[in-house]
Structure formats: C-alpha cells, structure tokens
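Input.
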Amino acid sequence: MAQNNQNGTASAPAATQSKALAAMKDELANGVLRRIEELQAHGGLVIPKDYAVTNQMNLAWLRISEMTTEVDGKQRPVLEVVTKASVANSLLDMVLQGMDIQKKQGYFIPIKNKAAGQLELTFWRSYFGDEKLARGQGMTKCRSVVVYEGDEFEYMYTEEGETRITKHIPNLTRINKDKIVAAYAVVTMADGTRCVTLKTMQQIRQAWQQGATKGNSPAHRNFTDDMAARTVERAALKHLINSSSDAWLLSEEDKERRMITETAAAPAGANVEEAKFEEVEAPALAARSETHGETIPPAPTPAAQPEAAEEDPFKL
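Output.
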C-alpha cells in the first residue's frame, strides 16, 4: 500500500498509478470525446440535445476506473484486464444511446470473448435506459400486471393480430409468487394507442434461461412476480425501440434538414462514419487495495445477451 512522506504527498507508486490512469483517460475517454466532437462538427453524428457528453464521459470513466473483476481467483482492476478498444467502444456505445449512468440507465460489464480469448468491456442498457428510449418514441407509460392461478382472465386476438385483454379480475387471496400463470405489459403511446405484450410463465422462465444467472438469482427467487413483470415490460419496450427511427434525437429544424438531405443523397446511414480505435498495449497500473473501487461478479460469457439480462428490480 502506498505510504505518505513527511510532507503529506503520495509515494512514488501512487503517483505512477495516477499518471498511468491520467494517460489512459486521455487516450481513451478524451480520445472518444474528441472523435465524437469531430463527427458532430461534420454532421456525421447526432447526440440528444439535452445530453451532456463531457459530464457523462467523465462519470463513466470514474466508474470504470473504480471497477474490479475476478481473474484467476483474484480481484483486479478492470482497466488492467480488458482491451483498450473495448473500453473506447463501450464509452461510445453509451454516448450514442444517450444513456446516463448516474440514473442507472446502463452498466459497464466485462465479458469474456471466447473466440479472442480475452476480456472486453461492454455497455449494457438497463430497464431505465429502455424506458428512456421508448419515451423518446412517444410512449407515455408502460404498465405490467401479473396473472395468478384463480384470476378471472380472458384475452383475444384482433383481426390485425394484436393482443387484447378482455377481462382480468384478480383475487388478493390468491396472490402467490409460486403460482404465477402469466404476465402482460400495456404500452400507451401519446396518440392514445395501446400495445399489449403477453407471456406465459413458461415463456418468461425460458427468457430467464438466457441470462447469466439462469433465473436463479436472489431477486428471481424472492421477487418472482416483480421480475416476471419486469421481463414483459422489457419485451414490450424492446419491440418499440428496435422498430423505431432516430427521429427523436432531432429538433424540428434538424428533422426538416435531415429529410431534405436524405431525399437527395445516399441511403440512410451512408453518412454515418464508424469510429475506430487501435488496440495497444495497456500500461501497467500499480496494484490497488481491494477495499477500494466497485467489485463486480465474475464476467459472464457471451451467451448472456444484454437484452435478456434480468437485474434486481430494486437496484435498477
């Protein structure tokens, strides 16, 4: 552990570590920020107007620099074990989606890339991040309801193939997290239209199998009804987000300019340049005390997709 000298200044190892982190931040976080500014200046990238890129980048870097992960049975700083390119790409991913990590709209998680044989840092959008994007598409609210054994429940499909709940009378005496039959979410749009997503408990458990904990986390076992409701909500929001355009990012003036440009120019997306970052050797960081920083569980494998991951509803 680093010791202080008589003047109260940090010893050489601590100073070396601080310099290494500062150099890495300038290369990665500040490098991504400069690249974003270049793309914005040339009209190749659009960021939500109320999104403070610099503030979010600094917050994200602070969060990442404090994270540790288990490698070979020991806790190590994440920045020592993940690739630099993955750090830059995860930061860019956060900015492109306009996510705020202070509001828990997403998380940075190291993932083992089996093909490359190395850890890579990824950005996973949370439920709150999904909700933010969905509201940008005109959603006003999303409500989920759990159906238990003994409830009077009926639904139908319309001629357009849409699901409609025609009857649901619950019974308080039958609420039991071990006797859930189904759950459904209702998304209401600004124009008053509604979309229902309905899943049986069997389907919900199959979705949980795609996650790292396979539906066996304490949250899934102790708050099964909350997790089931959260699962159908995310399924409903995912459909809305993935079927949308990026029009919500633009002001009315920008939308008109975009429409004129896309009508006369190349196919949509042709003017968007992908940011590339060269992978270089990571500088050695001095070992830090395990009492500092954020500790996360061992990295899951790529089989656990971000969209299918289910977090503790009371931590999101």
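The chain has a mean pLDDT of 77.
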